[in-house]
Design brief:
Layout (H helix, E strand, L loop, with lengths): L8 E9 L5 H10 L4 E4 L4 E4 L8 E11 L3 H14 L13 E8 L5 E2 L1 H6 L5 H10 L9
Length: 143
Protein backbone atom coordinates (compact mmCIF):
# COMPACT_ATOMS: atom_id res chain seq x y z
CA UNK A 1 0.00 0.00 0.00
CA UNK A 2 1.25 3.46 -0.87
CA UNK A 3 0.42 6.85 0.63
CA UNK A 4 -2.03 7.48 -2.24
CA UNK A 5 -3.93 4.19 -1.85
CA UNK A 6 -7.32 4.50 -0.15
CA UNK A 7 -7.41 3.01 3.35
CA UNK A 8 -8.37 -0.67 3.54
CA UNK A 9 -11.44 -1.73 5.45
CA UNK A 10 -12.41 -5.23 6.54
CA UNK A 11 -16.09 -6.14 6.73
CA UNK A 12 -17.36 -9.11 8.73
CA UNK A 13 -20.38 -10.39 6.83
CA UNK A 14 -23.17 -12.78 7.76
CA UNK A 15 -24.47 -14.69 4.76
CA UNK A 16 -27.78 -16.54 4.87
CA UNK A 17 -30.18 -18.34 2.56
CA UNK A 18 -33.39 -20.32 3.06
CA UNK A 19 -33.01 -22.21 -0.21
CA UNK A 20 -33.05 -26.03 0.05
CA UNK A 21 -29.26 -26.23 -0.46
CA UNK A 22 -26.27 -24.03 0.36
CA UNK A 23 -26.00 -22.95 -3.29
CA UNK A 24 -27.19 -19.39 -2.54
CA UNK A 25 -24.45 -18.88 0.02
CA UNK A 26 -21.84 -20.43 -2.28
CA UNK A 27 -22.88 -18.18 -5.19
CA UNK A 28 -22.75 -15.14 -2.89
CA UNK A 29 -19.21 -15.96 -1.81
CA UNK A 30 -18.16 -16.02 -5.47
CA UNK A 31 -20.00 -12.76 -6.23
CA UNK A 32 -18.42 -11.01 -3.23
CA UNK A 33 -15.03 -11.53 -4.90
CA UNK A 34 -15.95 -8.75 -7.33
CA UNK A 35 -16.00 -6.28 -4.40
CA UNK A 36 -12.53 -7.05 -3.06
CA UNK A 37 -10.63 -9.80 -1.31
CA UNK A 38 -13.08 -12.21 0.28
CA UNK A 39 -12.62 -15.33 2.36
CA UNK A 40 -15.07 -17.52 4.16
CA UNK A 41 -14.14 -17.73 7.84
CA UNK A 42 -16.62 -20.52 8.60
CA UNK A 43 -17.96 -23.41 6.62
CA UNK A 44 -21.60 -23.10 5.60
CA UNK A 45 -23.77 -24.37 8.46
CA UNK A 46 -27.51 -25.14 8.64
CA UNK A 47 -29.51 -23.43 11.41
CA UNK A 48 -33.17 -23.00 12.32
CA UNK A 49 -34.81 -19.71 11.34
CA UNK A 50 -33.99 -16.59 13.38
CA UNK A 51 -37.72 -16.11 13.89
CA UNK A 52 -38.27 -19.66 15.10
CA UNK A 53 -40.69 -20.48 12.29
CA UNK A 54 -41.34 -24.23 12.47
CA UNK A 55 -39.71 -26.16 9.64
CA UNK A 56 -37.81 -23.15 8.31
CA UNK A 57 -34.03 -23.56 8.06
CA UNK A 58 -31.25 -21.35 6.81
CA UNK A 59 -27.76 -21.96 5.54
CA UNK A 60 -25.39 -19.45 7.11
CA UNK A 61 -21.70 -18.60 7.01
CA UNK A 62 -19.37 -15.76 7.96
CA UNK A 63 -17.00 -14.13 5.51
CA UNK A 64 -14.51 -11.29 5.64
CA UNK A 65 -14.46 -8.83 2.77
CA UNK A 66 -11.53 -6.45 2.41
CA UNK A 67 -11.79 -3.39 0.22
CA UNK A 68 -11.46 0.38 0.28
CA UNK A 69 -15.16 1.22 0.44
CA UNK A 70 -17.08 3.04 3.10
CA UNK A 71 -20.08 1.43 4.75
CA UNK A 72 -22.74 3.01 2.52
CA UNK A 73 -21.01 1.98 -0.71
CA UNK A 74 -20.29 -1.52 0.59
CA UNK A 75 -23.88 -1.98 1.78
CA UNK A 76 -25.24 -0.78 -1.58
CA UNK A 77 -23.08 -3.31 -3.39
CA UNK A 78 -24.22 -6.08 -1.03
CA UNK A 79 -27.85 -5.19 -1.86
CA UNK A 80 -27.00 -5.29 -5.58
CA UNK A 81 -25.51 -8.78 -5.18
CA UNK A 82 -28.62 -9.90 -3.29
CA UNK A 83 -30.85 -8.64 -6.11
CA UNK A 84 -28.65 -10.25 -8.76
CA UNK A 85 -28.87 -13.59 -6.90
CA UNK A 86 -32.67 -13.44 -6.67
CA UNK A 87 -33.39 -11.72 -3.35
CA UNK A 88 -36.88 -10.24 -3.28
CA UNK A 89 -37.50 -7.96 -0.30
CA UNK A 90 -41.08 -7.28 -1.40
CA UNK A 91 -42.13 -10.95 -1.38
CA UNK A 92 -42.35 -12.93 1.87
CA UNK A 93 -41.10 -16.48 1.83
CA UNK A 94 -37.85 -17.86 0.55
CA UNK A 95 -34.73 -15.80 1.03
CA UNK A 96 -32.43 -16.50 -1.91
CA UNK A 97 -29.59 -14.70 -0.13
CA UNK A 98 -29.15 -12.25 2.72
CA UNK A 99 -25.85 -10.38 3.13
CA UNK A 100 -25.47 -8.40 6.34
CA UNK A 101 -22.57 -6.38 7.73
CA UNK A 102 -21.91 -7.47 11.32
CA UNK A 103 -18.75 -5.47 12.03
CA UNK A 104 -15.90 -3.54 10.46
CA UNK A 105 -12.18 -3.29 11.13
CA UNK A 106 -10.00 -0.45 9.92
CA UNK A 107 -6.95 -1.82 11.71
CA UNK A 108 -8.08 -1.16 15.28
CA UNK A 109 -10.14 -4.33 15.86
CA UNK A 110 -13.70 -5.32 15.07
CA UNK A 111 -16.32 -2.61 15.68
CA UNK A 112 -19.97 -3.68 15.69
CA UNK A 113 -22.12 -2.32 12.90
CA UNK A 114 -24.89 -0.06 14.22
CA UNK A 115 -27.52 -1.72 12.05
CA UNK A 116 -26.49 -5.21 13.21
CA UNK A 117 -26.68 -4.01 16.81
CA UNK A 118 -30.13 -2.52 16.28
CA UNK A 119 -31.39 -5.78 14.76
CA UNK A 120 -29.81 -7.86 17.53
CA UNK A 121 -27.79 -9.88 15.01
CA UNK A 122 -24.69 -10.13 17.21
CA UNK A 123 -26.68 -11.62 20.08
CA UNK A 124 -28.52 -14.27 18.08
CA UNK A 125 -27.44 -17.87 18.82
CA UNK A 126 -26.71 -18.54 15.13
CA UNK A 127 -24.35 -15.57 14.92
CA UNK A 128 -22.70 -16.37 18.24
CA UNK A 129 -22.13 -19.95 17.10
CA UNK A 130 -20.58 -18.81 13.83
CA UNK A 131 -18.40 -16.19 15.56
CA UNK A 132 -17.07 -18.85 17.92
CA UNK A 133 -16.44 -21.22 15.01
CA UNK A 134 -14.54 -18.46 13.19
CA UNK A 135 -12.47 -17.65 16.26
CA UNK A 136 -13.63 -14.04 16.18
CA UNK A 137 -12.80 -12.56 19.54
CA UNK A 138 -14.27 -9.43 21.01
CA UNK A 139 -16.36 -7.15 18.87
CA UNK A 140 -16.46 -3.64 20.29
CA UNK A 141 -20.02 -2.38 20.63
CA UNK A 142 -19.32 1.34 20.58
CA UNK A 143 -18.81 3.85 23.31
Amino acid sequence: MTATDPPRQRWLLLLGSSLPTDAGVQRALVALGALGMVRAVTPVQRFPSYTGEPGRWYFNALAVLENAQGRAACNAQLRAIEAHLGRRRDVPGEVAIDLDILASDDGCGWQADAHALAKGDLDHPTTRSLLALAGVGKIQRGG
